[in-house]
């Protein structure tokens, strides 16, 4: 059931942890950074949380004003989305992710959600700002995402692009591996782990924007 525990400490850090310090709370917020999600979608993204515990965290976050129930992006059950106050967690979550890169990997089987990979892609990609804009359609676990490269940055949003230079369908773990090693793309395509429609050079450009970033001002990297 939802918890009402408190550190009973007036420090802003302690008060913030009273709101989002319970186990799984920040990961729920992470999953809502790009788009609203239904309960079932959150369960899929966080496979190691029980349904009862997820329901508790959602009730707590909603009660505390971090999330709210809103319209889903397609017909079906209501979705959860960050409130304006909840969205202020974004730079905190990104900074926490940067800090956590040096932490040990969890033991297998470890989950990796589409949102997690896309957060990394958006933050790490540094395409050449002189290159023409490019739009990629990514399909991860059956859900479409748009990645737009322009002006030396990558921008990610949920949903179908109006038009795309290339489309790639895969799973989050495979995409994560390709962002580390773009040379693995032909083998992944050959064994069916990846399906590419359109110009393969466009996908290579996207992947190399992460592994071989343009060596310009790091401040252009999108957050």
CATH topology title of the largest domain: Nonspecific Lipid-transfer Protein, Chain A
CATH architecture name of the largest domain? 2-Layer Sandwich
Shape: globular
Structural class: alpha+beta
The main sheet orders its strands as: 6-5-4-7-8
Task: Tell me the radius of gyration.
Answer: 18 Å
Work out the number of β strands: 8
* Count of alpha and pi helical runs: 10
Please indicate the count of domains: 2
Percent helix range: 25-40%
**Share of β-strand residues:** 15-25%
CATH class of the largest domain: Alpha Beta
Give the averaged pLDDT, no decimals.
92
Show unreliable segments: 217-223
In short:
With 223 residues, this protein is α+β, with helices and mostly antiparallel strands.
Protein architecture, described:
By secondary structure, the protein is an alpha+beta fold. The chain has 2 domains: 12-100, Winged helix-like DNA-binding domain superfamily/Winged helix DNA-binding domain (Arc Repressor Mutant, subunit A, Orthogonal Bundle), CATH 1.10.10.10; 114-220, 2-Layer Sandwich (Nonspecific Lipid-transfer Protein, Chain A). Helix content is 40%, strand content 18%. It contains 10 helices and 8 strands. Strand 2 and strand 3 form a beta hairpin. Helix 7 (114-124) packs parallel to helix 8. The longest helix has 13 residues, at 51-63. It is globular, with a radius of gyration of 18 Å. The model is unreliable at 217-223 (pLDDT under 50).
């Amino acid at each position: 059931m939802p918890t009402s525990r408190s550190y009973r400490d007036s420090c802003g850090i302690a008060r913030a942890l009273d709101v989002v310090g319970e186990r799984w709370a920040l990961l729920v917020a992470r999953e809502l950074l790009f788009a609203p999600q239904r309960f079932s979608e959150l369960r899929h993204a966080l496979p190691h949380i029980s349904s009862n515990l997820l329901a508790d965290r959602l009730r707590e976050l909603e009660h505390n004003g971090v999330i709210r129930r809103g319209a889903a992006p397609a017909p079906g059950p209501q979705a959860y989305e960050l409130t304006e106050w909840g969205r202020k967690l974004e730079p905190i979550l990104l900074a926490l992710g940067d800090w956590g890169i040096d932490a040990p990997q969890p033991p297998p089987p470890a989950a990796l959600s589409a949102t997690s990979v896309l957060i990394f892609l958006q933050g790490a990609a540094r395409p050449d700002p002189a290159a023409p804009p490019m739009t990629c359609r990514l399909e991860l676990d059956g859900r479409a995402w748009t990645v737009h490269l322009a002006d030396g940055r990558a921008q990610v949003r949920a949903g179908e692009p109006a038009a795309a230079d290339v489309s790639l369908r895969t799973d989050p773990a495979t995409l994560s591996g390709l962002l580390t090693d773009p040379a693995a793309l032909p083998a992944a395509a050959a064994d069916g782990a990846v399906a590419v429609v359109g110009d393969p050079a466009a996908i290579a450009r996207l992947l190399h924007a992460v592994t071989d970033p343009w060596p310009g001002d790091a401040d252009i990297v999108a957050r």
